[in-house]
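re: ur question from earlier - yeah i can do the single chain one, its not a big deal. heres the input i used so u can compare w yours
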Amino acid sequence: MGDAFDGAVCEIDSQGRARFRCLPVQRLPAPYLGATTGRDLIAPRRRITEHHPDVLVATAGGVPGTPDDITALTDRAKIFAAGARAVATRRAYASDLIHFENWCRRAGLAALPAEPYTLAAYLTAYAESLAVSTMGRRLSAIAVAHREAGYALDLRHRVVRDTWQGIRRAKGTAPRSAAALTLPLLKRLIDTCDGGNLEDLRDRALLAVGFAGAFRRSELCALALTDVVPSPEGLVIRVARSKTDQLGEGELVPVGRTGSPYCPAAAFAAWTAAAGLQDGRVFRSINRHGRIGLGLSTRAVAQIVKDRAELAGLDAKAFSGHSLRAGFATSAAKSRVEEREIMKHTRHKSVSTFRRYVRFADIWERNLVVEIGL
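and the output i got, formated as tokens:
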């Protein structure tokens, strides 16, 4: 192409699509490459990491379309593909595969590729001990592993299908749900955080903010100080990424200031001030010497809820980190807040999923057994 073409820029947009632009050597982004002359640019493709990690540059010595550049793009495509599933899903799938492989090894069966009868036997082996939802996820993990390894696995094979349907029919498919921490119960938990030490201040803030924002455990763990904007009306909290927002578009959640002893905005301010937090995660671990550590794990959030429930005289086993979110939805429904307004605040996308939260909210509004005079 002579002087009209000396190189090309390949730009990867936010959706992972590649776009090539042919440029003369004078217009190639030399500063990003650390190159200043045409001679410097006549070199193989280099990755721009310092300034533009999503841009590849190819020059006369490495024109896009050559094996080297296709390999680089393929490698980047693999990175995008690896991020298609949430971190929690990838972690769960990895654990599921280890469980399946260990069982197959003990049974003397091949795990990859697995025969339909192997899958049926595996499901049967754990039909009594595992929840239906867990077994379903493990089937998905096994299917994904086969697909990525280039093996065909037919989950609709008669023996797999019939075994799975039989287990679901026998066990039932309704998921076990944690008890909702409705407002009266929440106040009992917060009342146990009255010592004024760092742990009490943190737990009070976590319970109040978690309930008021209808946050998931993962959202509370990921919450950073830069995500919270205090105002006279309360807190505006940005949820950068969530279970229903895997692309990270972000959502703003208003947490109002109430002026009561259970005010989430006041609890947040008291905790962050006492802990001297300037940046990083909002909710942190605290060791036995009172030193503040790293951000809490989802398991730690659940344990805090259980510990406070026990201190409040409740059955700790009935509650989990999800009880805060379920409690807000149920309490709002009991207060006759419109369904669409609650879903907007809780960020629910599915009406059926949302209604599972509030199915007990008005169950005793009218006691028909009493009304008919039994």
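The chain has 16 helices and nine strands. not sure if urs matches, ping me
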